């Protein structure tokens, strides 16, 4: 069961996403996938993701588009992203959004 404090974090993330005019629909889809991973990780400060899993959830079919979106989310200050170049280890993501 998710506690109220944790739900507040997700609501803050979603409100920030919806209010930013610089976010494209593809970025929004990738952020949706990141929120999905964040919730599965039980709202840890840092959570692991896989490129293939994020692409599947966000319906992004091109790795070029995926990397473009990740770069954009980093530049816009939504996430910290530490890539893993090992096929079995996930990349690490944390939120940079104020209040999260």
Structure in words:
The chain is 53% helix and 13% strand. It is an alpha+beta fold and 100 residues long. The protein has one domain (4-95): Arc Repressor Mutant, subunit A (Orthogonal Bundle). Strand 2 and strand 3 (91-95) form a beta hairpin. Helix 1 runs antiparallel to helix 2 (25-40), helix 2 packs across helix 3 (51-58) and helix 2 (25-40) packs across helix 4 (63-75). The mean pLDDT is 89.
Summarize the structure.
The protein is an alpha+beta fold and 100 residues long. It is built from four helices and three strands.
* Structural classification: alpha+beta
Largest sheet geometry: 3 strands, antiparallel
CATH architecture: Orthogonal Bundle
In whole angstroms, the N-to-C terminal distance is 19 Å
- State Rg: 13 Å
Strand content: 5-15%
The side-by-side strand order for the widest beta sheet comes to 1-3-2
Reported by name, the CATH topology is: Arc Repressor Mutant, subunit A
Shape: globular
> What does the average pLDDT come to?
89
Q: Kindly provide the name of the CATH class.
A: Mainly Alpha
Q: How many structurally independent domains?
A: 1
Give the number of helices: 4
Helical residue percent? 40-55%
